[in-house]
Write a structure and sequence with these properties.
There is one protein chain. By secondary structure, the chain is of the alpha+beta class. It has a domain of about 70 residues. It is built from three helices and five strands. It has a three-stranded antiparallel β-sheet. Strands 1-2 form a two-stranded antiparallel sheet. A hairpin with a 3-residue loop joins strand 3 and strand 4. The two termini are about 15 Å apart.
């Protein structure tokens, strides 16, 4: 379960001044020599905390990673090799692409 907190934009120079948004309670997972993984969200503003709901204001949920140790974006770009997989078959039904909760 991802927990979030509502907050108000208090930057008077912002077009979104006074609007309400959400941010996640940051839980991060570190895998040594690989990265620091954490979820993030992007929400649209609401006029009041009562009008803000995740169902209405959530625009994106992302899993982010910060490279650690020798595993960095620049190292990956230097060493990565790509090849096309010609055997790929697209899923035939929507159900096959859905993630099932255990």
């Amino acid at each position: 379960m991802l927990k979030y907190q509502k907050y108000q934009n208090k930057n008077e120079e912002s077009k979104a001044y006074g609007k309400w948004y959400a941010r996640l309670d940051g839980k991060k997972v570190k895998i040594d020599n690989l990265g620091l993984f954490y979820p993030s969200i992007h929400t649209t503003g609401a006029d009041s905390p009562e009008k803000f709901t995740i169902a209405k204001n959530l625009k994106a949920l992302r899993m982010r990673v910060l490279g650690t140790g020798n595993f960095s974006s620049s190292e990956i770009r230097k060493k990565a090799r790509f090849t096309q997989d010609n055997d790929y078959e697209a899923p035939e039904t929507k159900q096959e692409t859905e993630i099932q909760n255990p």
